[in-house]
Design brief:
- The protein is of the alpha/beta class and 182 residues long.
- The protein has a single domain (2-179), classed as Rossmann fold.
- It has helices at residues 10-20, 49-57, 91-100, 114-123, 128-148, 158-179, and strands at residues 2-3, 24-27, 30-31, 45-46, 61-67, 70-75, 84-87, 107-110, 151-154.
- It has a four-stranded mixed β-sheet with strand order 4-3-6-5. It has a three-stranded parallel β-sheet with strand order 1-8-9, sandwiched between helices.
- Strand 5 (61-67) and strand 6 (70-75) form a beta hairpin.
- It is globular.
- The protein starts with a strand and ends with a helix.
- The mean pLDDT is 93.
């Protein structure tokens, strides 16, 4: 799982990581928030509240939560055989998934500073009010994320951060393979 506050660069790192590693399958979260200007159509499954709630009622999510007035959920994964699932997920969701799968690898991605985080949020088109709310919520997300994560990566340079996360994934795969025995 790749977790972190808004503006940490989770989406960018996840996209580059899955483009580099065909053995990773990125789960697309659902949300009721509107798509931001310039945001790819497939960044999330964008839907209205009624469709989201119907999917939740049908058992279609591993976890879901409300954050800053919008619903976000992780669908039940359906990866290709032999693939590892990468969840780009918020802290609340990560806590729920980790409770279901205590062996899950949790990587906390952080922006290099509060100022850079703020710049990233503004650059993606968040309103000043929303930026303030995200920064405030982000402090608690980082505190909780540090308690949950097995690894912490600072996203100060995207390619370096992707390399570091790829190394963590490789180490987890190696550990999983070696624990299965010969």
């Amino acid at each position: 799982m790749l977790i972190g506050p808004g503006g940490a660069g989770k989406g960018t790192v996840a996209e580059r990581l899955t483009a580099r590693d065909p053995g990773l399958w990125l789960s697309r979260s659902w949300t009721t928030r509107p798509r931001r200007a310039g945001e790819p159509d497939d960044a999330y499954v964008f839907c209205d509240r009624a469709n989201f709630e119907a999917h939740a009622a049908a058992g279609g999510f591993v976890e879901w939560a409300e954050f800053l007035g919008n619903l976000y959920g992780t669908p039940v994964p359906a990866p290709p055989p032999g693939s590892d699932v990468l969840l780009e997920i918020d802290i609340q969701g990560a806590q729920r998934v980790a409770a279901l799968d205590p062996g899950a690898v949790v990587i906390l991605l952080l922006p290099p500073s509060d100022e850079v985080q703020k710049e990233r949020l503004v650059a993606r088109g968040d309103s000043p009010e929303h930026v303030g709310r995200r920064l405030e919520a982000g402090r608690e997300e980082v505190r909780l994320g540090r308690a949950l994560a097995s690894d912490v990566v600072v996203n100060d340079q995207v390619e370096r951060a992707v390399d570091e996360v790829a190394g963590i994934v490789a180490r987890a795969r190696s550990t999983r393979t070696s624990s299965k025995g010969p």
